[in-house]
Write a structure and sequence with these properties.
By secondary structure, the protein is α/β, with parallel strands linked by helices. 37% of the residues lie in helices and 20% in strands. The protein has helices spanning 7-16, 19-29, 35-43, 83-92, 110-113, 116-122, 132-139, 146-151, 233-244, 262-271, 282-307, and strands at residues 47-50, 53-57, 62-66, 72-75, 100-104, 127-131, 165-167, 172-175, 178-184, 193-201, 204-210, 251-253. The structure holds zinc ion.
Length: 308
């Protein structure tokens, strides 16, 4: 058995970010979950979604870990405050941080990648890859994200990080016999990236889609019309919705629990431990796309009406 080389840093982190302090911070940040619930849910992390795909981190904002005997791929790192939970839950799932080979991301918003700076220190040999647009925003710590530029909310900023390499549409990232494919799906941010991978359960292959984020931010945070900081935003959103419909999808994920009905699916799993895996949900994939497309269309209509 290999030594747990990261026990020391985790202990130090635990001192620096005590669960009580973290609980306070997360409860303040995450408005959709009450505090008691939060504590309960957090204790249940990590979650094995299917085969070698894990939800790690917090009950509401998580990261996706895809594992193999030859090393792992981590998609997103959660926020600066939540990253210590994410580190702990990777270790609690029985994996070692030093076996992470790649750190990828869905999009450069603080809650999903503020923790990347910490992961860079803990796993310096892991390669950090990102789309060009995301790498540019990462390098400025979020200063050049259009939402920050329109709104100026300082909580959106994070420690600047330089990517080791760029990924393009349909690039494959491979470790041993696992692979994830990048699909550029801009709109929520200019560099938003959806990832797909194939897993096997009970002798059957399933397509897992990790959506990069398809939520329109509202007219006050991210205008769809006359957005000087992201002129092509509306067209990008529509193209991305149309494109996502073409992807085969059996299991859908996104690093926010409420967006993927994580709690509901976990309750379903508890009720029927021998039943089918509730995360295998092809209809849910389509529902996810339709839901966010409707939200986008509603905002577009409202902005058009306001413009007259
Ligand atoms: Zn976001």
């Amino acid at each position: 058995m290999k030594q747990r080389a990261f026990l020391l840093p985790i202990t130090l982190l635990a001192l620096a970010f005590s669960p009580a302090a973290l609980g306070q911070l997360t409860a303040d940040r995450i408005d959709s979950t009450n505090r008691a619930d939060n504590a309960d849910q957090t204790r249940r992390m990590p979650i094995r979604i299917i085969d070698n795909v894990w939800w790690v981190g917090h009950s509401e904002v998580g990261a996706i870990l895809i594992t193999s005997p030859d090393g792992h791929i981590l998609i997103d790192t959660t926020s600066t405050e939540l990253a210590p939970w994410t580190v702990e839950s990777i270790v609690n799932a029985g994996f070692q941080l030093e076996d992470i080979r790649y750190i990828l991301n869905t999009h450069p918003h603080e809650e999903h990648m503020g923790g990347t700076a910490m992961f860079r220190k803990l796993v310096p040999h892991a390669k950090l890859l990102a789309s060009k647009e995301t790498a540019d925003v990462m390098a400025t710590g979020g200063l050049t994200d259009f939402r920050y530029m329109s709104e100026g909310d300082e909580t959106d900023l994070f420690e600047p990080i330089i990517a080791d390499g760029l990924i393009r549409h349909l690039d494959e990232v491979r470790v041993g016999d696992i692979a994830v494919v990048a699909h550029l799906t801009p709109g929520h941010t200019e560099g938003t990236t959806t990832w797909t991978t194939t897993v096997t359960e009970n002798g059957r292959d399933y397509e897992v889609v990790i959506y990069g984020g398809m939520s329109a931010s509202g007219a006050d945070r991210g205008r769809l019309i006359d957005n000087e900081d992201y002129p092509g935003i509306a067209e990008d959103f529509q193209r991305s919705f149309d494109y996502l419909r073409t992807l085969q999808c059996d299991v859908y994920l996104y690093p926010r629990a409420t967006s993927i009905e994580l709690d509901e699916k976990m309750r379903q799993r508890e009720r029927s431990a021998d039943g089918p895996n509730p995360f295998i949900d092809p209809e849910g994939c389509q529902h996810y796309i339709n839901f966010y497309e409707q939200r986008y269309l509603k905002q577009l209509e409202e902005e058009q009406a306001a413009r007259g």
